[in-house]
Design the sequence.
């Protein structure tokens, strides 16, 4: 049985990590760090679990670990290789952590605990293992909300001005797309028995299915409308044309063009409907389901386009001062063009979608599950949980 590592101080690591050289052949032992143990197991809920940090003791006694150590002692998780008795382990390089994912073997969790083993990629003789124990005292989520509306296209920038000409105005941003409506969802609930986990609530939601504990577990079903897309940003104004010279005269530069107006926000989608059908033998299961059929929020109006930069005074002219000729820069004789004005923000946000409806009704088990519910044989609406 692995003993948990006592962590004296936690060091917060930023999104980037600095790793010093690591010689896997000098590693003496490897351990999984954890501050939560249940008879040597890590408890988790649902199909995924964040695995604990890994510590490697080197031959000289120094500890290298993937977390909870000074920067110079950080171990790159890429030096490790994981295996699992079911499911898979994925390495999150950005956070330097590893995640167990049992989605493809979701229903096997009802019958089996999970053992994960970690080894050094370049020295597989150094290993450690730990058990993952699924628990269903948690909230499962079935998210079927409508699609988000697309953001409106930004307006094109105005054309730059020719010499001495003003820049063109930026084009207006486009309207944000509407959010999608929430779907019509049916939830069927009953109690099912398992060999290893005991009785669990079984919920069939569309083509997906979920299990959770009768005491302490719950299910959130979402059929809200999608959020409206944000309006597109207004295009930037074109730069004013430069001044230059003609006949030994400084010419006035052009002004920058005005920015375009932002597009209006898209309307939110209307909420869908959720019908919760409960096995009449267990009417209390209705209290374990939360539903959301809200209308989608309207999209925000687009930002105003920036004005174009004013044209620059360019060149120089010769001036007579008695018998002497001097050269003088045009920037000393004429002003640069004025910067263009900002456009306007979009005129209005999108309209919020209308709320949908929900209802609960009691039904017989035979009507809800005419083929029965046998989780052990994976019948009666199996499949992996809904994930977005």
Sequence:
């Amino acid at each position: 049985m692995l003993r948990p590592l006592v962590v004296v101080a936690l060091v917060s690591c930023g999104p980037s990590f600095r790793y010093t050289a690591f010689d896997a052949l000098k590693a003496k032992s490897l351990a999984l760090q954890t501050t939560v143990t249940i008879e040597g197991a890590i408890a988790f809920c649902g199909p995924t679990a964040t695995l604990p940090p890994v510590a490697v003791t080197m031959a000289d006694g120094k500890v290298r670990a993937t977390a909870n150590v000074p920067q110079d002692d950080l171990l790159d998780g890429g030096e490790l290789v994981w295996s699992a008795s079911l499911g898979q382990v994925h390495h999150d390089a950005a956070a330097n952590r590893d995640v167990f994912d049992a989605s493809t073997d979701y229903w096997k969790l009802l019958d089996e605990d999970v053992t994960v083993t970690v080894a050094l990629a370049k020295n597989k003789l150094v290993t450690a293992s730990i058990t993952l124990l699924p628990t269903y005292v948690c909230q499962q989520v079935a998210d079927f909300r409508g699609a988000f509306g697309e953001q409106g296209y930004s307006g094109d920038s105005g054309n730059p001005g020719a010499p001495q000409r003003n820049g063109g105005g930026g084009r207006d941003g486009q309207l944000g797309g509407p959010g999608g409506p929430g779907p019509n969802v049916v939830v069927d609930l009953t109690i099912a028995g398992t060999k290893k986990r005991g009785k669990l609530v079984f919920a069939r939601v569309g083509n997906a299915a979920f299990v959770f504990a009768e005491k302490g577990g719950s299910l959130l079903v979402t059929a809200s409308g999608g959020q409206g897309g944000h309006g597109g940003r207004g295009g930037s104004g074109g730069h004013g044309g430069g001044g230059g010279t003609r006949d030994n005269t400084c010419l006035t530069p052009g002004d920058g063009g005005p920015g375009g107006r932002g597009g209006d926000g898209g309307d939110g989608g209307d909420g869908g409907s959720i019908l919760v059908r409960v096995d009449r033998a267990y009417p209390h299961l209705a209290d374990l389901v939360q539903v959301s059929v809200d209308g989608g929020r309207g999209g925000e109006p687009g930002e105003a386009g920036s004005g174009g930069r004013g044209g620059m005074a360019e060149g120089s002219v010769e001036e007579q001062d008695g018998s002497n000729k001097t050269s003088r820069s045009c920037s000393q004789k004429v002003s640069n063009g004025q910067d263009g004005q900002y456009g306007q923000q979009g005129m209005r946000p999108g309209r919020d979608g209308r709320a949908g409806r929900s209802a609960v009704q009691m039904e017989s088990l035979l009507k809800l599950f005419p083929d029965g519910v046998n989780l052990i044989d994976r019948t009666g609406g199996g499949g992996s949980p809904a994930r977005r």
User: Anything to note?
Assistant: The first strand starts at residue 27 and ends at 32.
